Amino acid sequence: MCTYRTEKVTVSGSGKGPRGWFAVTDATVYLDHPVSAPADHTLNIDVLNPEQGAGARVALELDPVAARRLAEAILTVLDEAPPGLVKPLARSAT
To answer: 70-80 pLDDT, tens per residue?
Structure first.
C-alpha cells in the first residue's frame, strides 16, 4: 500500500547526471512502488534542479532497511564532524 506521503525540501549542493555536474535546489522523498529496484515498495529520493529540465535529476530507490541505514549514516557523519566544520541546523519556531 502506498502512503502518498511526500516530503519536499529545499537543498543546496550538486548532483551528477547524464550531462555532468549540476546545482541541485530541491529534493523529494516518498514511499512508493519502484520503477527499477527489485522490491514491492521503496523509499524514493529525487534530487533535482527544476529550472534545468529533466536531465538535472538524480533518483534513488532504496529498500526501507537500506534507506534507514543511509539516514543513520548521514546523521552519524554530521554529528561526529569536527567542531566548526558543519554549521548547526537553524531551528524554526513552530
So the answer is: 999 999 999 99
Please tell me the number of Cα atoms within 13 Å of 70 on its side-chain side: 11
Other beta carbons less than 10 A from residue 4's beta carbon: 8
Query: Given this model, what pLDDT does residue 13 score?
Result: 96
Contact (CB, 8 A) for 14 and 25: no
How many other C-beta atoms lie within 10 A of the C-beta of residue 8? 11
Name which of 23, 32, 34 is nearest 4 in CA terms.
Answer: 32
Q: What does the alpha-carbon distance between residue 67 and residue 61 come to, in Å, rounded to a whole number?
A: 9
Please state, in angstroms and rounded to a whole number, the distance separating the CA atoms of residues 57 and 61.
13
